[in-house]
Structure formats: structure tokens, C-alpha cells
Amino acid sequence: MPKTRYAISALAVACALASTASWAGTQSDTADNLTMYGITLYGTIDVGVSYQSHGSAFSDAAATNVNNFLIKASNKPNTSLASNGMSISTIGIKGREPLGAGWWGVFQFDTGFLPASMTLIDGTRSIASNNGVALADQKSYGDSTRAGQAFNGRAFVGVESPHYGALTFGRQSTLLNDEVCKYDPLSCSLAFSYVGFFGATAGTGDTEDRLLDGTLKYTLTDGLFHGGAMYQFGNARKLSSSRGTAYQVDLGITQGPWSVDGVLAHKDDAISVGGSLTAAQVAALTTPGSSTYGLPVDKTLPGTVSDNTSYTFLGEYDAGRPKFFAAYEHIRYANPTTPLPIGSQTIGGYFIVPSNSAFPRPKVLEVAWVGMRYALTPSLDFFAAYYRAMQNSYAKVSCSNSSSPQCSGHYDALSLVLDQHFGRHFDVYGGVQWSRVYDGMGSGYLQSGSFDPTIGVRIVF
């Protein structure tokens, strides 16, 4: 494994164990963080133990090391160390410097890692490592916007003003991802939240698009109203590793205990990597005359290409100790207007064997959730959430069984979590989620349901 991955993880551990108060107290005016000369070092370390009644073996690249929710390869009972149960382990730097006339210059750079394996998160590698492996023998995997890049999280610069808002450019979390995690009672937890583990909800239909390269993003809060707009220069290859352009618009209102948002999002040439290459596809990579001949086995993946459009409505009611959440998203997938050729590259430098005609009719995925967060004591929080994802039948001939992934179906998930805080920088959590898949959404799955408890600790600095 590249030494840089170990170095980044080791640095995060060292920083978290350092005396943050003493360093900040002598080097900056900030009372409780790692700030020097206007630059703040920050991060999170989240590690625990997870059990899946139907799971897959430990992976040193998947975003949680294990499949906390039921996926196609979930099969056998599995207990192991796991990472990022409640939040993604991250190390980064950020800054905010005055420019004059009420304007500030801002920047932020960070990367996500796996403390249980001391490696960077690399979702695409977790899938590629299963190329040619039978489904029942595959290790845990999952597509991700984090693909082993040096800065697989945020990497942007910009300006902001309290009156005119913030304008930033670079690799950024999308407006949709921001709002989905804000209105998810579990804040996109990877171990307990369906919309956290399966990033399609926050990625306009595909996980790889939760964060986007080459984006111009504007946000503003003005009285009761807040919102923003963003655009991705996806066709400018020097600016973005993604194919196709994207745009998003968000409008929200906060009034007393109520907060609501609506987000419209669109992405051209979105790429979804739902699984690895079959043994036959791997063989074709080394077969002269094959359309995929010469592509590297460890860097090639099958990808479904589509043009996606979504609209999302989200709401929160803050009743004091309890907070209530609800949301609904409608995502439409259609075959791309600009098909991608074989060997097109996606994030992390991986090559794609594309499927440009996966949707005989437009696919519609609807995702809805309700939940609550309750402060049992000033330091102990209880979370409960129910998620449902539903797809229509987009086959040429409608169907509603598990004979094809194009048939209609749905996926249910229920989560219960307790989180005990010991000061600002340390907490211990434990919870359980149950997930079950039905009909077309479960086509090809080895199992139909799973019960998955997880416990862990989290350090924030």
C-alpha cells in the first residue's frame, strides 16, 4: 500500500491525541482548535466494531471497511473492525482571512481515511479488487465519490461576505448533499443511514456525484431565506475528473422552529459503478480483438451511464429536546444524450466499460424518510429513522418481481442509535439497523435482509 496513505492516517491520529487547547492557546486567538497563522488543522477519527447477519468480508478500501447495509454480495455473518460508522474520518486544513471591505478569503482541503485499515477511502478500488471474483466470495465494496485521491474530500478556494454570501470554486460537496445530510436525522451516518451509505440520494442518482470537481458554488442567507446555486464544468477536462456538466439550485426558509428546503439537480453523463467485472469481462481485457483489450484489470470497472434529474423536498421541526425530520426525493434516470466510449475515465483514474442503454424506459427512484433526534440528557442523544427507496418498472415489458433489476421494487431500512458525548471532542455510540430488499431492487441479491449492529468511538479535533 502506498506509504502516503499510512502517513496521512498516522498524522490524523497524532493530531487527535495532541493537546489541542495548549497548542491553540499559545499559537492563536482561537480558544479550542488547532489554529496557527489563520490556518486551522481539523479532523475526525471514527472507528468501531460491526456485525452483519448477512455481510461480506473486510475491505481496506470501502468507505466503512464493511457493508453495513444489505448489498448484492451480502451473504454470511461477519464481525470485524469498521470505520466511519457515524461520520467520515477526515484530516484537513481550512482558513478564513480578511480581504477588506467586509470580504473574506476562504479555503478548505481535506481527505477521508479508514482508521481500521490506515488507508485512504477508495470506493472504486474496493469494487475493482473483486473483478472476476464470484459474488459469494467478494469482499465488501461500494461506489464512492472518494477514490483514493490525495484530497478525496473538499478542495476549494473562494470569497465570502456576510451581506453577499459565499462564492467558491473547486472540488466541493453539492448543495443536494449538504441538504440531504442536514435533514437526515442521522446526518448521513454510513453505518445507520440509508442515504448516507447509499449515496445515490445525495448524488442526484449516483454516489460518485455527492462531491464534484470543477464546480462554481454560491450560497447566501438573507433573513428568513437561504439557498444557493452551483455549476460543474464537467466538459472541461482540466477542471474536472467527471464527464458531463451539472447544475443545482436550492431554496430554503427558516421560520421559528421550522426549516424547509427544495433542491433541483441535474447531472449529464453520470456514472454508477454497481459491481465488479465478471470473469468473462476480465478475460476479455487480455484477449486480442476484444473491444476492451489492453485495459488494466485492476483499474477497469463496468459503469452505467445516464442523464439524471432530481427534485427534493426536505423539512425539520425543532421542538427543543426532540427534533423531527422528513424528506422526499424523486430521481429520473435516462440514457445519456452523449454516450461514453469504452475506456472513458472516471474519478480516481479508473477506466469504464460503459453501458449507455441501461434504461429501455426512464427509471424513477423515489427515496423518502422520517425520523427524530431526541436529547435524553444534555450529553446523550437518541436517534430513530425509517427510510424507503422505491423504483418503477423501467423494462420494455413491466414487471414487479425479482426476475430482473428493471422490475419495480423497494428497499426498507430502520435504524435506532444512542450517542453519548464526553465533552466536545469525544463520543461513544451504538446502534442497530435492519434492512430488507424486495422484488426488482433485490434482483441478483444473495440474501433479502440483514440485521447490523455497530458500536464505535469518535474523536473530533
From TrEMBL:
- What is the annotated localization of this protein? Cell outer membrane
User: May I ask which residue range the UniProt record assigns to the signal sequence?
Assistant: 1-24
- Matches recorded under InterPro entries: Gram-neg_bact_OMP, Gram_neg_porin_domain, Porin_dom_sf
The UniProt entry lists membrane topology as: Multi-pass membrane protein
Question: What is the superkingdom listed in this entry's lineage?
Answer: Bacteria
Please tell me where this protein is predominantly located.
Answer: membrane
Keywords, in A-Z order? Cell outer membrane, Ion transport, Membrane, Porin, Signal, Transmembrane, Transmembrane beta strand, Transport
- Record keywords: Lipid metabolism included? no
Q: How does it assemble?
A: Homotrimer.
What's this protein's name? Porin
What is the organism of origin for this protein? Dyella humi
